[in-house]
């Protein structure tokens, strides 16, 4: 749901980190607001940039942190200063509006949106369909790192061969397990090629309701619930929606959707594997995990980092696995989401170019490597770790930048948690729903809550009703680009 970025420390690097942190706050994974403010890279240690030749002055409206975001403001100020040194013809004006799905239409109609701004992965179809995102191909033709972007991420905003957004920080949902709880209950550690049946048995066997320990803690309070559930919808071969002629319609009430929701029902009522108080939000789930009261949660490297640095857990007790497949030999599918940067198509071409240059200013640069080294030195001094390893970094692992990044990590073996490359290889990411994804997540959470409350709930009937209502109230208003 990465429409919001989690609050991170001043040394956090949004372009190098996945954007899920378990410390509460905003993220783009199924919360109601889209006003997240992803962390920028601080690169004050980089060499002075080469100044562009004199050009006519243009005005670039820069998306800027809100006044109470004391962590991010100096980072943005530094980036603007360095950008201004290289592009003196660009006058920068701050704009503290951050994307909200219920405000974007108003902002675009009033021509009040920044020249470039963050958007969650869920908004691709809506933005492109309304013509609210500029085609970036003309700028990419002149960009030296155009071929170094991770193609797993660019597909989310690619339409008819045109890229409409730059990936900044992203993720593919995976599974985190507390190996200690598995060992205490004599439950085998799952293999990388595990299935729903194995997932169910592990969650059931590690649960101890009398002690307040859940085998599996899933989010089921806010939009996060629908976001979590969509992983299982995808694993069952389903989709949230599809475009039919000139309209978008719901498909989550398919046989795959029924299978996925029935599996949730089985975990709740037959396996008794969920927390007794299952109405948990994002922060609740990870707090439960850090307390040693949940054996399995959905997440990724950000939660490993938080569990060790803030929860006092031992990194050797934690393990990341790919999502289970529904059946043996099937794909290990997880939701692919995150934060992207788009260029405002209402601006002149000169301003659009400046916006693209600002968005990509520190990407693929040694300045980011310098910041990573600062982070690692800080973690080493504090006895903390930096979790690293994802199928969803903005750059290709085999790019020159990716290799430099990896080489530096290898210098800090005690302070880095790295995913098993086989886990990364097994992970398959399917993008979040492109149209009104956050509203979809909320609709699904309502179904989950009924299923978790009522043992006799009719899963098919609930999904059919939710799909009909969602089509009528939300998707019927979607405009499809011709």
Automatic annotation (TrEMBL):
Residues 1-24 form the signal peptide. Keywords: Signal. The keyword Flavoprotein does not apply. The keyword Metal-binding does not apply. Residues 27-55 are annotated as: Disordered. InterPro entries: Bact_solute-bd_prot1 (IPR050490), SBP (IPR006059). Residues 28-40 have a biased composition (Polar residues). It comes from the Bacteria. Pfam families: SBP_bac_1 (PF01547). Residues 41-50 have a biased composition (Low complexity). PANTHER family: ARABINOSE-BINDING PROTEIN-RELATED, SUGAR-BINDING LIPOPROTEIN. This is ABC-type glycerol-3-phosphate transport system substrate-binding protein.
